[in-house]
Amino acid sequence: MLHRSIALLLLLNYSLSGLAQSCTDAWEMINPKITLDSVNTLTYAHDRFFAIGSGGVIYNSTDGAVWEKERVGTSDYLSDLTWGNGLYVSVSINGNIYTSKDAQTWSLSYQNENQGSSLKAIIRNSNRFVAIGSEWHNSNQAIVLSSQDGLSWQRITFPEYEFMYLHSVASNSESFIIGGTQYREKSPPEAIFLHSQDGVQWQRQIFSEAIVINRIMYAGQYWFSSGSGASVSDSGSFNNKLWRSSDGKNWTVVIDGDAARVTNVIWDGTQYVAMQSNQNFTVSEDGANWHKLDTPFYGNSMTWGKGWLMVLSNGSIYRSQDAQHWDNPLSLTSNVLSAGIWDGNKFVVIDVDTVLHSEEGIHWQQSAQNNPLGNQQLFKKLVWNGSRYVAISYRSPNLFISEDAAQWQAHEITGVERLNDLIWDGEKFVAVGYDGVNAIVLTSADGNHWQTVYVQAAGEQKTELLSLTTTGAGLPIAVGFSHVGGAFIANKSGRPLVVKQDAQGKWNYQLLDLGADSERSQSLNAVAWNGQSLLAVGSQSNYRNADGTWVESVLLSISSSDGKSWEQHEINLPVRPDLFKDLAWDGKKFIAVGSNGMLLTTPDGISWQQPLSNTNASLNQIVADGAAPLILGDRGTILRGQCGEVAQIGQYVDDKLWIRAVIQTMEKGLIEARWQLDGTDTTTRGDRVIWGHFYADPESVDWGHPDNPDLFVKIWYDASGRLDVNYFHVSVPEIMVYSAYDGDPAQPDSYSRLNMWQQRYVRHYFEQGQSYQEIPPLNSTVTDDGTPQLSSSTLDQLRISTQIHSETAGIFDGLWQLGGQAQTSRGDRVLWGHFYADPQQVNWGNLNNPDMFVKIWFDFSGRIDVNYFHVSVPDIGVFSDYPADGTFDQKHLTGMSSRYQRHEFWLK
């Protein structure tokens, strides 16, 4: 019988703290191959291919097949690389320049001293290097650096040109051309070219046919430039074009009105090949007449070298000699690692085409034999019994055996549709899976000869077992799911299934009733034993109500001391309900992993923590009994637990209040947000205010910056004794927020998930020893007919204003305070600040008591987002005017029940 309970079930004498001695509180990415998380640019320089990106990582290959990994010595985000004067030269988003003679040992040749400067591209012609970027903190000045030797650099300034953004640079043997855009007061943006013969003296050319040049290229005998046309469609999208020129000054449109932007053009000796920002490659014999090719992948970056067209696509590299016939992708990051083992001396990991081994989990070697396991297998589990390795695969053949992990023999177990898990229970191999209808259990003493036991629950037509472990008595127990009436894929009537072997060798099934309504399907995906008790984890599916609304999925956690009576627990974290893939006990805690980089830990199945995996790759298997714990995942991901003291996560803003924010990114999965304190003060009646913002770690994502807030925070210590922690989501990704007051940060008092679609704001408040949450509606629909007398200029003729509706002083204009501004690597600009009440109007008015946070996003495409976040008590009117003509175009009233308002404009 299943007992519902959230009472504490202590499996060990264990306590959590902000500082812990553990190997599974922090994880390091240890990848034997290139990972999509770190590589964004593919290029060819001198005699080899390079793949570069974040973390200071540089991969190089002389043939595009075998890659060597190096680092520049820092965590810099590398944006481009070229060759000249006997040196490889690379530039970074942080404005630094690195050089190397052999592509292995790198030195810093130019150190940027100005915070906010970045370099995004570099080129070399016959006698000079030119690197370009921007310096957004100084009137958005463009950066051009010039050097003959790659070691000594000259800064070229353009004091007469403000708000000029340079995006790309190209050269032939005679000249350089830079493409970009320029913003000017009271004028629409204009595309520009900068021309130079020597890389030092430059002339500007206004290109009136476009508002921005994103990419400039020289290929074959022509210059090519791509960008957005000067006109905007009725739908608000820009007219993307490709221009061709023989002299770099007179341009002719050759691709017009395409929804996808051209990101690169190369000449392969017989034709031009253009890569676009969707699943299209376009080819031309003359650079004027183009036709599209149907390519089965998206291109992230493209280069040409040694007769090969090389394309980086979601972590894999494709190559072709004609842009039409593509080789199978080189398995650089598409590897699915889900089968690994510690054999007592070393780690052994098998993937789709090779065997990896390592003594400590850091330095890895590949099997010398080419494809020792056959062609593109998809392995599920690898087991070592002391004398042989046995692996199961989803594909046929479904079983592999080896004595030395080098030479493998393939076998086929017939009558099996899918094998899901494999263990050695001390006497025999045990495997579980599915035969097309029934859950199955297979056993073998030697790995060669297998006996199959079919297990089917009475009245159930389709059952499947997904995970397997042994109890203290050495008896196997498996978990999975069962579907009534053969509804195997339906979202209804699924029930968790437990199958256990008793002391007499008999297998018995048990269907669990977890109390879900009939609309939901439940499944147990993984099970583990900690020496005293079992823990199983799974999920409860989402479903659609009759009114069309979705009920979200939830994660399941159940525990048992005997495998018969189970207690259900709540996973008390604001995590996405992703699919569990594995569960293991590391000697101190359970580790659970799953899709989208999901990583959770718990000592007991009740109190859950969420260490950062720093990846969004699916995490598939845990190897917890080796020299250090490892987690294996997609795209060649290997995470290694870092032993020793782990620094506390989150931030104490004073001696008792702890806050934390975790950002769900596309690039790295969950990353820890950084805190910046912006101000503190105390009102005349004794209230205390603390305010600041969280932002994405710049070492994790290229858009992270202290002046690009992702989460505003205003903390209010009310004179009455109440404490309010107000979180305002001001970004695109989903953000998890946590608060703890006078307690243990390992077990926060409050936690919430914020996103741009449903929940922009949450208030965590503490009163009389209790914690609470408040979530008001998303945004306001009330217009405001007020006419502020004060307005504040931002950028590009945008003006903003507020009016505060106070009970004591009536309606008066808010005062504006600029917080900061920044620019992303692709050319988006961000400006943020806050409005506050005039101290001459009310006694609570203060520069360090924000009443309205504002974040303005000038998107690269030309869209302007003005985001207002009400952080006070009175109603506040918000007003935006673009282009500034003295009349506010958008007016709305915000309040405590309507905290957020967005005004949208497009550059004119």
Overview of this protein structure:
- The structure is a single chain.
- With 908 residues, the protein is an all-beta fold.
- It folds into four domains: 2-6 and 333-641, Methylamine Dehydrogenase, Chain H, CATH 2.130.10; 37-317, YVTN repeat-like/Quinoprotein amine dehydrogenase (Methylamine Dehydrogenase, Chain H), CATH 2.130.10.10; 651-774, no CATH class; 792-906, no CATH class.
- Helix content is 0%, strand content 51%.
- The chain is built from no helices and 78 strands.
- Strands 61-62-63-64-67-68 form a six-stranded antiparallel beta sheet, with no helix packed on it.
- Residues 1-21, 33-37, 232-237 and 485-493 have low confidence and may be disordered.
Number of helical elements: 0
Q: How is the biggest beta sheet arranged?
A: 6 strands, antiparallel
Mean of the pLDDT scores? 81
Instruction: Name the structural class.
Output: mainly beta
Taken together, the total number of domains comes to: 4
Broad shape: globular
CATH superfamily of the largest domain: YVTN repeat-like/Quinoprotein amine dehydrogenase
CATH architecture of the largest domain: 7 Propeller
The termini sit apart by 68 Å
The CATH class of the largest domain: Mainly Beta
Rg from alpha-carbon coordinates: 30 Å
**How helical, in percent, are the residues?**
under 10%
| β-strand amount | over 45%
- Please report the total strand number as a whole number: 78
Strands of the widest sheet, in order across it, are 61-62-63-64-67-68
Task: Find the CATH topology of the largest domain.
Answer: Methylamine Dehydrogenase, Chain H
Low-confidence stretches: 1-21, 33-37, 232-237, 485-493
